Amino acid sequence: MRVLITGISGFVGKILHEKIRELNHEIYGIDSIDDNSSSLQIDITDFDSMQNAVEKIKPDFVFHLAAISRVDINDPQKIFNVNINGTLNLLSACLKLDKKPEILLVSSSQVYGIVKEDENPVNEHKAVKPVNLYGASKAAVENIAAAFFQEFDLPVVIARPFNHTGKGQAANFVIPKIIQAFREKRDKLELGTINVARDYLDVRDVVNAYIKIMQNFRPGEKYNISSGLTISLSEIISQIEEISCYKLNIITNEGLFRKNEIESVKGDSSKIQKELGWSPEYDFKETLKWMLE
Questions:
Q1: Which of 8, 14, 73, 113 is deepest in the core (most CB within 10 A)?
Q2: Do residues 252 and 188 lie in contact, with contact meaning Cβ atoms separated by under 8 Å?
Q3: β-bridge partners, 232
Protein backbone atom coordinates (compact mmCIF):
# COMPACT_ATOMS: atom_id res chain seq x y z
CA MET A 1 0.00 0.00 0.00
CA ARG A 2 1.21 3.49 -0.86
CA VAL A 3 1.08 5.59 2.32
CA LEU A 4 1.48 9.36 2.39
CA ILE A 5 2.35 11.13 5.66
CA THR A 6 2.05 14.91 5.70
CA GLY A 7 4.20 16.46 8.41
CA ILE A 8 6.48 13.43 8.24
CA SER A 9 9.44 15.32 9.73
CA GLY A 10 7.50 16.40 12.81
CA PHE A 11 7.48 14.85 16.27
CA VAL A 12 4.61 12.41 15.62
CA GLY A 13 5.40 12.02 11.92
CA LYS A 14 8.85 10.55 12.57
CA ILE A 15 7.50 7.93 14.97
CA LEU A 16 4.59 7.10 12.66
CA HIS A 17 7.06 6.75 9.79
CA GLU A 18 9.02 4.11 11.67
CA LYS A 19 5.89 2.17 12.66
CA ILE A 20 4.57 2.16 9.08
CA ARG A 21 7.96 1.05 7.82
CA GLU A 22 7.71 -1.99 10.10
CA LEU A 23 4.47 -2.90 8.31
CA ASN A 24 6.30 -2.92 4.95
CA HIS A 25 4.16 -0.28 3.27
CA GLU A 26 5.50 2.05 0.58
CA ILE A 27 5.98 5.36 2.41
CA TYR A 28 5.97 8.89 1.01
CA GLY A 29 6.30 12.10 2.97
CA ILE A 30 5.44 15.77 2.63
CA ASP A 31 6.86 18.42 4.93
CA SER A 32 7.85 22.06 4.86
CA ILE A 33 11.19 21.10 6.43
CA ASP A 34 14.07 19.75 4.38
CA ASP A 35 15.56 17.12 6.67
CA ASN A 36 17.55 15.36 3.92
CA SER A 37 15.08 12.46 3.86
CA SER A 38 13.21 11.10 0.88
CA SER A 39 10.18 13.29 1.64
CA LEU A 40 9.08 16.11 -0.62
CA GLN A 41 9.61 19.63 0.70
CA ILE A 42 6.19 21.15 0.07
CA ASP A 43 4.36 24.19 1.39
CA ILE A 44 0.88 22.76 1.96
CA THR A 45 -0.66 26.23 1.59
CA ASP A 46 0.44 26.20 -2.08
CA PHE A 47 -2.31 24.34 -3.93
CA ASP A 48 -0.35 23.68 -7.12
CA SER A 49 2.57 22.18 -5.19
CA MET A 50 0.20 20.03 -3.15
CA GLN A 51 -1.73 18.86 -6.20
CA ASN A 52 1.46 17.98 -8.10
CA ALA A 53 2.79 16.01 -5.12
CA VAL A 54 -0.44 14.06 -4.60
CA GLU A 55 -0.77 13.33 -8.32
CA LYS A 56 2.82 12.07 -8.37
CA ILE A 57 2.46 9.85 -5.29
CA LYS A 58 -1.09 8.59 -5.89
CA PRO A 59 -1.45 7.38 -2.29
CA ASP A 60 -3.82 4.65 -1.14
CA PHE A 61 -3.83 6.08 2.37
CA VAL A 62 -3.03 9.53 3.79
CA PHE A 63 -2.10 10.41 7.36
CA HIS A 64 -2.63 14.18 7.54
CA LEU A 65 -0.47 15.39 10.43
CA ALA A 66 0.92 18.61 8.95
CA ALA A 67 -0.25 21.59 11.00
CA ILE A 68 0.75 24.33 13.38
CA SER A 69 0.10 22.59 16.69
CA ARG A 70 0.91 25.31 19.23
CA VAL A 71 -2.00 26.25 21.50
CA ASP A 72 -0.30 29.51 22.51
CA ILE A 73 0.17 30.83 18.96
CA ASN A 74 -1.20 34.34 18.52
CA ASP A 75 -1.18 34.68 14.73
CA PRO A 76 -4.67 33.99 13.29
CA GLN A 77 -3.69 34.40 9.64
CA LYS A 78 -0.76 32.00 9.91
CA ILE A 79 -2.50 29.23 11.84
CA PHE A 80 -5.68 29.39 9.76
CA ASN A 81 -3.74 29.50 6.50
CA VAL A 82 -1.64 26.43 7.37
CA ASN A 83 -4.23 24.37 9.23
CA ILE A 84 -7.36 25.22 7.25
CA ASN A 85 -6.16 26.12 3.75
CA GLY A 86 -3.44 23.49 3.87
CA THR A 87 -6.02 20.82 4.67
CA LEU A 88 -8.39 22.15 2.03
CA ASN A 89 -5.58 21.89 -0.53
CA LEU A 90 -4.85 18.29 0.45
CA LEU A 91 -8.48 17.19 0.32
CA SER A 92 -9.03 18.95 -3.01
CA ALA A 93 -5.92 17.32 -4.49
CA CYS A 94 -7.00 13.86 -3.28
CA LEU A 95 -10.42 14.41 -4.80
CA LYS A 96 -8.87 14.79 -8.27
CA LEU A 97 -7.29 11.32 -8.21
CA ASP A 98 -8.97 8.52 -10.13
CA LYS A 99 -8.89 6.38 -7.00
CA LYS A 100 -9.69 8.40 -3.90
CA PRO A 101 -7.34 7.58 -1.02
CA GLU A 102 -8.53 6.89 2.50
CA ILE A 103 -7.58 9.82 4.74
CA LEU A 104 -6.96 10.04 8.47
CA LEU A 105 -7.26 13.68 9.47
CA VAL A 106 -5.64 14.45 12.82
CA SER A 107 -7.70 16.96 14.79
CA SER A 108 -7.34 17.65 18.52
CA SER A 109 -9.12 17.46 21.87
CA GLN A 110 -8.79 21.26 21.87
CA VAL A 111 -12.00 21.38 19.81
CA TYR A 112 -13.94 20.62 23.02
CA GLY A 113 -12.75 23.81 24.70
CA ILE A 114 -13.37 24.35 28.41
CA VAL A 115 -14.93 21.26 29.97
CA LYS A 116 -16.87 21.38 33.23
CA GLU A 117 -15.87 18.82 35.83
CA ASP A 118 -19.25 17.03 35.62
CA GLU A 119 -18.81 16.70 31.83
CA ASN A 120 -15.64 14.61 32.13
CA PRO A 121 -14.77 12.30 30.50
CA VAL A 122 -15.91 13.76 27.19
CA ASN A 123 -16.93 11.54 24.29
CA GLU A 124 -17.24 12.27 20.59
CA HIS A 125 -20.83 13.53 20.99
CA LYS A 126 -19.87 16.52 23.14
CA ALA A 127 -20.47 19.86 21.47
CA VAL A 128 -17.42 21.41 19.86
CA LYS A 129 -16.66 24.79 21.50
CA PRO A 130 -12.98 25.76 21.05
CA VAL A 131 -11.58 28.65 23.10
CA ASN A 132 -8.26 29.24 21.31
CA LEU A 133 -7.06 29.71 17.75
CA TYR A 134 -5.60 26.22 17.48
CA GLY A 135 -8.83 24.55 18.60
CA ALA A 136 -10.85 26.79 16.27
CA SER A 137 -8.65 25.86 13.31
CA LYS A 138 -9.11 22.15 14.04
CA ALA A 139 -12.87 22.51 14.46
CA ALA A 140 -13.02 24.23 11.06
CA VAL A 141 -10.93 21.48 9.50
CA GLU A 142 -13.28 18.83 10.89
CA ASN A 143 -16.26 20.57 9.30
CA ILE A 144 -14.48 20.87 5.96
CA ALA A 145 -13.57 17.17 6.01
CA ALA A 146 -17.14 16.21 6.92
CA ALA A 147 -18.42 18.28 3.98
CA PHE A 148 -15.99 16.56 1.58
CA PHE A 149 -17.22 13.20 2.87
CA GLN A 150 -20.89 14.11 2.48
CA GLU A 151 -20.59 15.99 -0.83
CA PHE A 152 -17.99 13.94 -2.66
CA ASP A 153 -17.77 10.62 -0.77
CA LEU A 154 -14.14 11.36 0.05
CA PRO A 155 -13.32 8.71 2.67
CA VAL A 156 -12.15 10.60 5.76
CA VAL A 157 -11.85 9.63 9.44
CA ILE A 158 -11.20 12.25 12.12
CA ALA A 159 -8.95 11.48 15.09
CA ARG A 160 -9.10 13.64 18.21
CA PRO A 161 -5.94 12.89 20.17
CA PHE A 162 -5.65 14.28 23.68
CA ASN A 163 -2.33 15.60 24.97
CA HIS A 164 0.59 13.36 24.09
CA THR A 165 4.32 13.58 24.56
CA GLY A 166 7.48 11.56 24.24
CA LYS A 167 11.10 11.59 23.20
CA GLY A 168 11.73 13.99 20.35
CA GLN A 169 9.01 16.52 21.16
CA ALA A 170 10.20 20.13 20.98
CA ALA A 171 11.18 21.86 24.21
CA ASN A 172 8.67 24.65 23.63
CA PHE A 173 6.03 22.16 24.82
CA VAL A 174 5.72 22.05 28.57
CA ILE A 175 6.72 18.48 29.45
CA PRO A 176 9.86 18.41 27.24
CA LYS A 177 10.68 21.84 28.68
CA ILE A 178 10.52 20.40 32.21
CA ILE A 179 12.43 17.24 31.20
CA GLN A 180 15.21 19.35 29.65
CA ALA A 181 15.54 21.39 32.85
CA PHE A 182 15.93 18.20 34.89
CA ARG A 183 18.42 16.68 32.46
CA GLU A 184 20.52 19.84 32.61
CA LYS A 185 20.16 19.90 36.42
CA ARG A 186 19.11 23.52 36.47
CA ASP A 187 18.48 25.24 39.79
CA LYS A 188 15.10 26.65 38.79
CA LEU A 189 12.48 26.77 36.06
CA GLU A 190 9.76 29.34 35.38
CA LEU A 191 6.32 27.93 34.48
CA GLY A 192 2.76 29.13 34.36
CA THR A 193 0.15 27.40 36.47
CA ILE A 194 1.10 23.83 37.38
CA ASN A 195 -2.34 22.91 38.74
CA VAL A 196 -3.92 22.23 35.35
CA ALA A 197 -4.76 18.57 34.73
CA ARG A 198 -4.62 16.88 31.36
CA ASP A 199 -5.28 13.50 29.83
CA TYR A 200 -1.74 12.59 28.75
CA LEU A 201 -0.71 9.77 26.45
CA ASP A 202 2.58 8.37 25.26
CA VAL A 203 3.06 9.37 21.61
CA ARG A 204 3.66 5.70 20.74
CA ASP A 205 0.12 4.89 21.92
CA VAL A 206 -1.26 7.68 19.74
CA VAL A 207 0.64 6.38 16.72
CA ASN A 208 -0.68 2.87 17.41
CA ALA A 209 -4.21 4.31 17.41
CA TYR A 210 -3.60 5.93 14.01
CA ILE A 211 -2.45 2.60 12.63
CA LYS A 212 -5.53 0.84 14.05
CA ILE A 213 -7.70 3.40 12.25
CA MET A 214 -5.84 2.73 8.99
CA GLN A 215 -6.20 -1.02 9.36
CA ASN A 216 -9.90 -0.86 10.26
CA PHE A 217 -10.96 2.16 8.24
CA ARG A 218 -14.54 3.38 8.75
CA PRO A 219 -15.23 6.49 6.63
CA GLY A 220 -17.06 9.34 8.32
CA GLU A 221 -16.19 8.32 11.90
CA LYS A 222 -14.62 10.38 14.68
CA TYR A 223 -12.47 8.86 17.41
CA ASN A 224 -11.15 10.21 20.69
CA ILE A 225 -7.65 8.97 21.47
CA SER A 226 -7.20 9.30 25.22
CA SER A 227 -6.26 7.50 28.42
CA GLY A 228 -9.37 8.43 30.41
CA LEU A 229 -7.09 9.63 33.24
CA THR A 230 -5.84 13.04 34.24
CA ILE A 231 -2.56 14.09 35.75
CA SER A 232 -1.55 17.60 36.81
CA LEU A 233 1.72 19.28 35.94
CA SER A 234 2.60 19.34 39.63
CA GLU A 235 2.16 15.54 39.78
CA ILE A 236 4.28 15.14 36.66
CA ILE A 237 7.04 17.23 38.21
CA SER A 238 6.91 15.08 41.35
CA GLN A 239 7.23 11.91 39.26
CA ILE A 240 10.21 13.32 37.38
CA GLU A 241 11.85 14.26 40.70
CA GLU A 242 11.36 10.68 41.89
CA ILE A 243 12.75 9.17 38.69
CA SER A 244 15.72 11.51 38.41
CA CYS A 245 16.50 11.83 42.14
CA TYR A 246 16.78 15.56 41.58
CA LYS A 247 14.64 18.45 42.84
CA LEU A 248 13.97 21.54 40.78
CA ASN A 249 12.81 24.90 42.10
CA ILE A 250 9.63 25.76 40.16
CA ILE A 251 8.89 29.48 39.97
CA THR A 252 5.36 30.54 39.03
CA ASN A 253 5.35 33.25 36.38
CA GLU A 254 1.92 34.79 35.92
CA GLY A 255 3.07 36.15 32.59
CA LEU A 256 3.01 32.56 31.31
CA PHE A 257 -0.63 32.01 32.29
CA ARG A 258 -2.94 31.44 29.33
CA LYS A 259 -6.19 33.24 28.81
CA ASN A 260 -9.13 30.80 28.73
CA GLU A 261 -6.96 28.09 30.31
CA ILE A 262 -8.59 24.66 30.23
CA GLU A 263 -8.28 23.61 33.87
CA SER A 264 -9.03 19.89 33.55
CA VAL A 265 -10.11 17.60 30.74
CA LYS A 266 -10.07 13.87 30.08
CA GLY A 267 -11.37 11.85 27.19
CA ASP A 268 -13.65 8.89 26.79
CA SER A 269 -11.97 6.58 24.25
CA SER A 270 -14.43 3.70 24.64
CA LYS A 271 -15.51 4.03 20.99
CA ILE A 272 -12.07 3.32 19.48
CA GLN A 273 -11.46 0.65 22.10
CA LYS A 274 -14.69 -1.20 21.29
CA GLU A 275 -14.72 -0.70 17.52
CA LEU A 276 -11.04 -0.98 16.64
CA GLY A 277 -9.50 -2.79 19.61
CA TRP A 278 -7.08 -0.04 20.58
CA SER A 279 -6.11 0.75 24.15
CA PRO A 280 -3.14 2.58 25.72
CA GLU A 281 -0.18 0.34 26.54
CA TYR A 282 2.33 2.73 28.14
CA ASP A 283 2.15 3.86 31.75
CA PHE A 284 2.84 7.59 31.79
CA LYS A 285 5.62 7.25 34.34
CA GLU A 286 7.39 4.95 31.89
CA THR A 287 6.97 7.65 29.25
CA LEU A 288 8.72 10.14 31.51
CA LYS A 289 11.56 7.66 32.10
CA TRP A 290 11.90 7.20 28.34
CA MET A 291 12.12 10.97 27.88
CA LEU A 292 14.72 11.33 30.63
CA GLU A 293 17.04 8.75 29.05
A1: 8
A2: no
A3: 197
